[in-house]
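Input.
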Amino acid sequence: MRTFSMLVKPIALAAMLCAGQASAAFYLGDTTGGDTFNRPVEDLSALSGVGTNVAYESFSFSVDTAGSYSFRSFALPLANTWDNFLILYTGAFNPASALTNATIANDDFNSNIGRSGFDLSLSTGVAYTLVTTSFYNDDSGKYLNLIRGPGDVTAPVPEPETYLMLLAGLAAVGFMVRRRTFD
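Output.
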């Protein structure tokens, strides 16, 4: 399960980096077994009393065009969802200081458990971090996040070592698939 997430993220990231003038970006993830933190409450006034040890994943990005962007997160599978929670940070995200740089958060977009989202005006030249987590402790799962707006969503360019690790991982998967075919 973790291997699927590890393979899908780089592929989705590569697609976003290579897309020309796209107005929407999406990526898949899985918070299961991830690092944990004490998340903020939805109005960002304090830390949660029920989400004190929630698993999370973060996605850092910037935009190339200023304007209004829509953020939507869908817990997967849609038929049997977990209660996801979305937080946008302007600048760095530090799980040990979860209120610092927190800009907006949402749980149960349009009163739907398993869907989170918000709309916000973003600026160019600013780093943002989108954190996908859950409402309750011990609640986690797969998700699909969608960011839509007037410009491209650009993830930081990975270091050359990251590309080498990705290629090595893909080669290993290819070798294992080929080996299974001949066994």
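The longest strand covers residues 67-76.
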